[in-house]
Amino acid sequence: MAVVLGIETSCDETGVGIVADGRLLGDALASSMEEHARFGGVVPEIAARAHLEALVPCVSKAFADSGLTPADVDAVAVTAGPGLATALQTGVAAAKSFALAWDVPLYGVHHLAGHVAADTLEHGPLPRRCMALIVSGGHTSLLLLDDLARSPIVHLGDTRDDAAGEAFDKVARLLGLPYPGGPSVSKAALTGDPDKIAFPRAMPGSYSFSFSGLKAAVARWVERSPETLHVADVAASFQEAVVDVLTAKAVSACRDHDVSTLLIVGGVAANGRLRELAAERCARAGIELRVPVPRLCTDNGAMIAAVGGLLHEAGEPASPLDLSVDPSAPL
Ligand code: KG4
Ligand code: ZN
């Protein structure tokens, strides 16, 4: 049984997880989200300092949770990119120190591979071929997966402008709702009418996405009648437009590539309406839908440990101890 410690520090969450053979044994999460709230977005220097403060306490808590000690660890995995450079560096420096001190291999992991692997911790190994829709604050990507540890991921499409989570965050700001926008817009949407406003559904070519036109449409709507604005209706109608496009494109990508399993991962996969509409459309199309519990959808260390476990099991070469971060790592 290989025990892997995973570290995630690409944005504002300090995540540590301990995974053994695809099972999550212990984890810890700290967030600097509140410190960024007054700036309306993540400030890299604040995030990096917060990671430094939180890392060792998070590692201690993950060990305490798991009942294991450093002597039990067989490998260390860490997010090497993409993400904020200074934030990534804190995690990578810590991971190198642990790998060196414990004399175990180090694996630099792609953040998006981590989001995909998160699902295996809840639902077990992935089928040979599957489609993944990654929807987070930085990404909106459709990926065709084969063997996560060995085969390259085929990148089918991406957003041409804002990521889905970014659109939620920006619309929250327009509506005067607190940061982070995803949870606050979806909460406001609960009491709103999703059919009230026919916001545009941009369908750019093939598997690309675009949310900047939708964001601009919400901005125009807010400017037109700020005093009579019904925030819940705007939030619900905006959310419906986003999840309509995401689910329609993901289902057609599965059909086009003859894939019968769809994974939805990343922070926006915590969205209740997205989960509901995806379940409906996948059931109709005969596609198996896999979406992890919300705490595994958002950034965490266990997902990075899960990829480390797959790499270790597949006998992939470890990363060198001079591993550098890659803030804009391609897939
Ligand atoms: O994956 P994640 O934790 O970090 C990144 O790698 O970006 O995703 C964070 C994003 C934020 O934009 C946040 O607003 C969004 O996920 N998010 C949501 C929800 N919860 C988080 N968006 C919509 N509905 C939610 N319930
Ligand atoms: Zn993420």
Automatic annotation (TrEMBL):
Query: What keywords is this UniProt entry annotated with?
Result: Acyltransferase, Cytoplasm, Iron, Metal-binding, Transferase, tRNA processing
PROSITE patterns of this UniProt entry? Answer: GLYCOPROTEASE
Q: Which cellular component, as a GO term, is one annotated location?
A: cytoplasm
Which molecular function GO terms apply here?
Answer: iron ion binding; tRNA N(6)-L-threonylcarbamoyladenine synthase activity
Q: What is its EC number?
A: 2.3.1.234
User: Which superkingdom is the protein from?
Assistant: Bacteria
Name the coenzymes or cofactors required.
Fe(2+)
Show where the Gcp-like domain sits. Answer: 24-305
Major enzyme class: transferase
Q: Cofactor note from UniProt?
A: Binds 1 Fe(2+) ion per subunit.
Q: Name one GO biological process term.
A: tRNA threonylcarbamoyladenosine modification
Location relative to the cell: Cytoplasm
The positions annotated for binding substrate are 134-138, 169, 182, 271
Query: Which NCBIfam families does this one have?
Result: gcp_kae1, T6A_TsaD_YgjD
- Role: Required for the formation of a threonylcarbamoyl group on adenosine at position 37 (t(6)A37) in tRNAs that read codons beginning with adenine. Is involved in the transfer of the threonylcarbamoyl moiety of threonylcarbamoyl-AMP (TC-AMP) to the N6 group of A37, together with TsaE and TsaB. TsaD likely plays a direct catalytic role in this reaction.
Family from the record: Belongs to the KAE1 / TsaD family.
Question: Which protein, by its recorded name, is this?
Answer: tRNA N6-adenosine threonylcarbamoyltransferase
What organism, scientifically named, is this protein from? Sinosporangium album
